[in-house]
Amino acid sequence: MPYDSPTQSPARAQFADETRSEKRIVERTDGVVEQLREELGDDLSLIAFYNEDVLEIHFVHETVREQYQQQGLDALASDLCLDARMGDAYQESLVQLGQLNFVVTGFDDGLLARVPLGQQVGVAVTTNLNAGDRITTLVPRVVEEHDIVVASRG
């Protein structure tokens, strides 16, 4: 896959249940995945944690999984991990509205909510369009309510 920008570099997608614990992005999700699955139901497409190099998938709807081979998942990882590389402080400096709490992006076939958990790490949730405004209220609230522990390296 070609990369046009020095800020983009290859990232990889990994499935949490196939990844050794010392290689995971988060040490504990505190039930956030289960609650989002319960509350969003069939509208939910993907729940993943990301840092600047890895997209760690904790849930993927079977119809979405069927659409992506590993290369497609890695391309998705590169796009989401770019947010971690650029940093939320940059986005906060663009507008004077305070700390960035979440980002929601709409596409033809779905919605993406990205909630920062710290510097260069966050959670990404994708849904179909039926999720509507629930994604802007539900996802940030659920993430905030849970004690997610990001793995420390070093």
Summarize the structure.
The chain is α+β, with helices and mostly antiparallel strands. It has helices at 32-40, 62-67, 70-86, 88-94, 134-145, and strands at 12-15, 26-28, 44-51, 54-60, 103-106, 111-118, 121-127, 149-150.
Residues in helices, as a percent range: 25-40%
As a percent range, the share of strand residues is: 25-35%
Sheet of most strands = 6 strands, mixed
Number of domains: 1
Termini gap:
31 Å
The averaged pLDDT comes out at 84
CATH second-level architecture: 2-Layer Sandwich
Give the CATH H-level superfamily: Dynein light chain 2a, cytoplasmic
What's the order of the H and E elements? Answer: EEHEEHHHEEEHE
User: Given the helix and strand composition, which structural class is it?
Assistant: alpha+beta
Strand order of the largest sheet: 1-4-3-7-6-5
Name the descriptors.
single chain; 8 strands; 154 residues; Beta-Lactamase; two-stranded antiparallel ribbon; alpha+beta; 33% helix; six-stranded mixed sheet
Describe the structure.
With 154 residues, the chain is an alpha+beta fold. The chain has one domain: Beta-Lactamase (2-Layer Sandwich). The protein has helices at residues 32-40, 62-67, 70-86, 88-94, 134-145; strands at 12-15, 26-28, 44-51, 54-60, 103-106, 111-118, 121-127, 149-150. It has a six-stranded mixed sheet, with helices on both faces. Strands 2-8 form a two-stranded antiparallel sheet. The longest helix has 17 residues, at 70-86.
